[in-house]
Task: inverse folding
């Protein structure tokens, strides 16, 4: 087909048409929704308050008591870990061989040291004197105040009371 | 076409800068005038590009919604016609892109069987020759098809098409030349019929 013939055909068959009656102008309510909305204005004071509130919330979250735990059988490591968290617990570097440390926990203002004597569980709790001695299913064998901290020993078996003291104290002079 | 838009108190013509400015200020009467002035143009481009009335209606409606939403962005130093053509072209291409993203396989299938799916009603409503030309154009790539539509539906010059499509005049010429070659092959049955049938078909659409 020659070029002029093609142009004739295209001009004839591709011309404008009349739009159907169904095509109506869009209503103003058909506006495309945009964000921020047209009426939106940045308000520095509100933004500042929101930012300050966010900082306060984050700081409070950061400050909240967080449970912490150290699993270790090393007396020196546990003592150092507790000291770094403001609990001065005089754990002996070499307690009797029957004593085996397992872990230390901190919950708020209370520290716990878990250990065992010949496989029987013992818990040493260190807390502020203002708190009640911890409630436990174990037998509380000793509770005394040292340098402003309340030390409470709890044993699964009462017969371990004497040996349990040897975690921190040396010799038979305990009691 | 003219209108006396209450608050403005003057006679205005379609695509008149004053009408455009009134539309930018949110005058709904001015927008109605603009719509009436351009509805056939927008619909025709949409129809010639998409190849079917339903899609053309969707495209035209979407184009006018965009026009309403963005006319405040129109800068008066530009030509409104060019800006509107560009908006319609982009709407056509967006529409096709969305359809292809949604139903790529189905669209290919529809393209391949379109001649056999012509309904009796469509045959009655549409001239057969025109349908064949429209079909041949519809099978062009979007870039080639848009150049053909702007050239033969709107009668625009190469320079105007280049400005609308933001490409060079050479690119327009190249695309049109390529489209001509493809269409010449597809419409070979129209040889020597362009002038013979012109009387019978003129004004049917």
Result:
């Amino acid at each position: 087909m020659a070029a002029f013939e093609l142009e004739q055909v295209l001009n004839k068959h591709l011309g404008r048409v009349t739009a159907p009656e169904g095509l109506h102008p869009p209503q103003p309510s058909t506006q495309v929704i945009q964000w921020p909305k047209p009426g939106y204005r940045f308000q520095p004071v509100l933004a500042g308050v929101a930012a300050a509130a966010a900082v306060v919330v984050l700081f409070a979250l950061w400050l909240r008591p967080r449970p912490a735990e150290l699993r270790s059988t090393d007396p020196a490591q546990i003592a150092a870990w507790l000291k770094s968290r403001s609990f001065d617990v005089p754990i002996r570097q070499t307690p009797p061989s029957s004593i085996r440390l397992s872990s230390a926990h901190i919950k708020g203002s209370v520290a716990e040291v878990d250990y065992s004597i010949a496989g029987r569980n013992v818990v040493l709790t260190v807390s502020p004197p203002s708190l009640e001695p911890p409630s436990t299913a174990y037998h509380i064998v000793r509770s005394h105040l040292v340098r402003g901290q309340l030390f409470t020993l709890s044993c699964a078996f009462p017969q371990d009371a004497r040996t349990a003291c040897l975690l921190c104290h040396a010799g038979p002079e305990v009691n | 076409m003219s209108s006396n838009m209450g608050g403005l108190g003057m006679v205005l013509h379609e695509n008149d800068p004053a009408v455009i400015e009134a539309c930018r200020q949110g005058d709904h009467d001015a927008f109605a005038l603009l719509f009436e002035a351009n509805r056939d143009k927008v619909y025709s481009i949409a129809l010639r590009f998409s190849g079917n009335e339903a899609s053309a209606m969707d495209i035209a409606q979407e184009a006018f919604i965009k026009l309403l939403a963005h006319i405040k962005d129109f800068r008066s130093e530009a030509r409104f016609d060019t800006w509107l053509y560009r908006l319609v072209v982009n709407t056509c291409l967006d529409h096709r892109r969305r359809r292809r993203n949604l139903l790529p396989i189905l669209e290919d299938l529809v393209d391949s069987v379109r001649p056999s799916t012509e309904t009796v009603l469509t045959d009655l409503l549409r001239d057969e020759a025109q349908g064949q030309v429209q079909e041949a154009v519809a099978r062009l790539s979007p870039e080639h098809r848009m150049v053909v539509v702007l050239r033969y539906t709107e009668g625009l010059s190469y320079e105007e098409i280049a400005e609308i499509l933001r490409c060079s005049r050479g690119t327009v010429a190249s695309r049109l030349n390529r489209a001509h070659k493809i269409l010449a092959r597809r419409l070979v049955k129209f040889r020597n019929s362009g002038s013979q049938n012109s009387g019978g078909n003129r004004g049917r659409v």
Q: What stands out?
A: Helices of chain A lie at 3-13, 44-63, 75-83, 161-164.
